[in-house]
Amino acid sequence: MTQSITKTTVNIPPLENGDRLTRLEFETRYQQMTHVKKAELIEGIVYLGSPVKINQHGAPHANIIGWLGFYSAYTNGVQIGDNCTVRLDPENEPQPDALLRIEKGGQSIISEDGYVEGAPELIVEIAASTVSIDLHDKLKAYRRNQVQEYLVWRVDDNEIDWFRLKEEKYIKLKADENGIIKSEVYQGLWLDVNALLRGDLATVLNILQQELNTSEHQTFVKKLSTNITNNE
Questions:
Q1: Which residues are CB-contacts of 4 (< 8 A; sequence separation ≥ 6)?
Q2: Which of 42, 67, 170, 225 sits in a 20 to 30 Å window from 74, CA-based?
Q3: pLDDT tens, residue by residue, 66-97
């Protein structure tokens, strides 16, 4: 007797805005949608990326990457990420515009399949159409998962909010008398807010370069190098 074997095809539904999913369900669907460039799971809800305009997102995003990239080039032991998926918890898998993580001895790791797992020390979001999400549900998720610093560039408002996690709350870092905000996690990561807002990346990098030449920054780099050595 010849038996016929019928193969069952499992249809995986596509991601839709507003879907309520677990992180595993989200990843399974996202991996099938190779045409989708950005999808996020925030507090168990799916958000799909929209087309972006150059002045509202593209140019600000590029300047943030230039600033963080310059810092990472002179700070061995940190890693910059651009639109990387981050596995935070069972209900949150964001794809932040930029992140900076301590490679060894930090809060996050790189999984065997190449994703960031855990909370990077710094996350940056460019917020135009997404400002309500970035300053509410994302902020809550980042705070709960111990993202130490969270920078939100509110493009339409021409404002930058840089939050620091202190005693389970996000407190805004204030600019000094020269309009510079200084990271409390990454020694030497200084930001001339007004220069960035007007698109003057040269001034932003010049201010940053001045701090990268200090002994304090070199001490921080040595500390990171010690972490690398101890973890090898």
A1: none
A2: 170
A3: 999 999 999 999 999 999 999 999 999 999 99
Q: Which two tokens stand for residue 139?
A: 């902020």
Structural domains in the chain, sorted by start: 55-231 (3.90.1570.10)
* Gap between the Cα atoms of 148 and 165, Å rounded: 5
Contacts of 75 (CB under 8 A, 6+ apart): 186, 188, 212, 217, 220, 221, 224
Residues 6+ apart with CB under 8 A from 3: none
Are 85 and 157 in contact, with CB atoms under 8 Å apart? Answer: no
How large is the C-alpha radius of gyration of the chain?
20
Statement: residue 107 has pLDDT above 70: yes
State residue 156 phi and psi, 5-degree precision.
-65, -30
Q: Any idea what DSSP says for residue 9?
A: P
Residues paired with 182 in a beta bridge? 190
DSSP category for residue 45: E
Q: What token pair was written down for 202?
A: 């040269």
Distance CA 92, CA 141 (A): 7
Please answer whether residues 119 and 146 qualify as being in contact, where contact means their C-beta atoms are separated by less than 8 angstroms. Answer: yes
Q: Which amino acid is at 59?
A: A
Token pair in block for residue 74:
């002179």
Q: How far is CA 37 from the centre of its chain?
A: 16
Q: Which of 86, 90, 87, 89 has its CA nearest to residue 124?
A: 86
Pairing verdict, β 45-48 and 39-42: antiparallel
| Entry pTM | 0.90
